[in-house]
Design a protein that fits this description.
The chain is built from 7 helices and 20 strands. By secondary structure, the chain is α+β, with helices and mostly antiparallel strands.
Length: 323
């Protein structure tokens, strides 16, 4: 049958490094699942499948361009954290098993010629995506969920089940009770951690549970998040409790592996920037809301932000653009 491999695009290991394991700075993009058709399960079949899967962001002129040159990447079988073996022929490939992890290492000296970071980050919606983002209660639209819907669900009153009864000191017996979560004192800094992983019974032989990544798009406001509907303190009634976004942590990958990046709003120049390992690049507010958003950072409007007026972010970006 078909063979499935988890593929991790990387920069090749720094030859000057003495470390066997060079860390997360080598990760180039989002790991993906590669399918090799059953009649093409071979080293050359894997190469063809990789070329097709990476054609969008591995630049054709440098990597695939019909001039007879060899591919400027190596395929490495990741047998463990510290155990890797380069795959160069059918003999080595014959040891690879279904669902193993392989890395595609791009040469550092030709990285800019071979790899397009912009195309790798581009998102393309699959037709099946919309139907999978509908809630059972019908509140989510084809665009997914909104942060306000998440807050409403988080703060709505919940009737505890018969397994979670509460002992009533007045009637001296266990009763089904209701539970409600609300804010009493709104913070200066609001951190929203989106639930991106779900646990289900029936995991592997080593675990009673399995964990799945939740890829639902949660749209959230860049400016003007109003927390007043969720605050219960009478002293704050009628006060403006408005928050503006200034940071987002993104997660790419699955429950057992992945890569983190961050969008940050500079208090110095008022512009958004993308932080991806040692690389810093300019971004816009329209780039920030994606299905990869994992942790959101809001600041209450009018709160002090610190002393950053003298920071030159353009100079900072130029010095941090390294491999």
């Amino acid at each position: 049958g078909d063979m499935h491999l988890v593929v991790v695009p990387r920069k090749e290991k720094d030859r000057q490094s003495m470390s066997t394991y060079s860390g997360s700075d080598r990760i180039l993009g989002t790991p993906f699942l590669l399918t090799i058709p059953g009649d093409r399960v071979s080293f050359s079949g894997m190469q063809d499948a990789l070329r097709e899967a990476m054609a969008r962001y591995a630049k054709p002129a440098a990597v695939f361009g019909g001039d007879g040159s060899e591919d400027r990447f190596r395929v490495v079988w990741m047998r463990g954290t510290y155990d890797e073996e380069e795959l160069g022929d059918d003999i080595a490939f014959g040891m690879v098993q279904d669902r193993d992890v392989v890395a595609v290492d791009f040469a550092r000296d030709t990285l800019d010629e071979c790899f397009s970071r912009e195309e790798e980050r581009a998102l393309e919606d699959h037709p099946s995506w919309a139907s999978e983002n509908l809630n059972s209660d019908g509140r989510a639209s084809a665009e997914g969920l909104t942060l306000e819907q998440c807050l409403e669900s988080f703060t709505e009153r919940e009737i505890l089940s018969e397994k979670d009864t509460w002992y009533c000191p007045r009637c001296k017996r266990h009763q089904r009770a209701s539970k409600e979560i609300a804010l009493w004192s709104p913070p200066t800094e609001l951190i929203v951690h989106l639930k991106r992983f779900s646990q289900q019974e029936g995991g592997s032989s080593f675990s009673l549970f399995s964990s799945d990544k939740i890829e639902t798009l949660v749209t959230f406001p860049i400016e003007g998040l109003d927390l007043s509907p969720y605050v219960r303190s009478p002293a704050l009634e009628g006060q403006a409790l408005v928050y503006d976004l200034h940071g987002v942590v993104n997660h790419f990958g699955g429950s057992g592996f992945g890569h983190y990046t961050a969008y940050c709003l500079s208090p110095g120049d008022g512009n958004w920037h993308l932080f991806d390992d040692s690389s810093v690049s300019s971004a816009s507010a329209s780039d920030v809301v994606t299905p990869a958003a994992y942790v959101l950072f809001y600041r209450r409007r009018g709160a002090p932000v610190g002393h950053f007026a003298d920071i030159d972010m353009e100079a900072g970006c130029s010095t941090m653009e390294t491999d």
